[in-house]
Specification:
The protein is mainly α. The chain has one domain. Helices cover about 70% and strands about 0% of the residues. The longest helix has about 35 residues. It is elongated. The chain starts with a helix and ends in a 7-residue tail after the last helix.
Length: about 150
């Protein structure tokens, strides 16, 4: 594994979110001027608004998946936890890897809060808490955590 490549994957998700947000904003503006442009696909301006409102939540779930996957591989390959790498919960994984890598308590707490937001979105379907942490700040915290991994493993 290459740490820089892993960080690049998180940055790519954040960049894709920015592109999607700009695209949805453009579509919304066009649809406001001419709502018939959506009719061929059986969409409405309301559908575009719902997409816009859920975009950050969707990308937070993707961002966290890109963060969690290399942690599991690190747990399996470097920490030699081959029996538990797939079954360890994300909370314990973050705490265990974070402790081993000497990640600060403050950073671990930020990452755990992001995990809680992801859980609220995935398991409870609630995006109410998402406004507390912007996607860009989530990306920075997750990248900061992953930056503690070895350059190669």
């Amino acid at each position: 594994m290459n740490r820089q490549a892993l960080l690049g994957r998180l940055e790519a998700v954040a960049k894709e979110h920015r592109v999607a947000a700009l695209s949805v904003a453009g579509l919304r503006a066009e649809a406001s001027r001419d709502p018939t442009i959506l009719k061929a696909d059986r969409l409405t301006v309301t559908d575009v608004d719902v997409c816009r409102d859920n975009l950050e939540a969707t990308y937070l779930v993707r961002l966290f998946a890109e963060f969690e996957a290399p942690l599991r591989l690190y747990w399996r390959d470097v920490r030699k936890r081959r029996k538990t790498w797939q079954t360890i919960g994300a909370q314990d994984l973050i705490e265990s890897v974070g402790a081993y890598l000497r990640v600060s308590d403050a950073l671990r707490q930020r990452v755990q809060r992001i995990r809680e937001l992801r859980n609220a979105l995935v398991h409870r379907g609630g995006a109410a808490h998402l406004t507390e942490i912007a996607l860009r700040l989530c990306c920075l915290s997750l990248c900061h955590f992953l930056s503690r991994l070895p350059l190669q493993w």
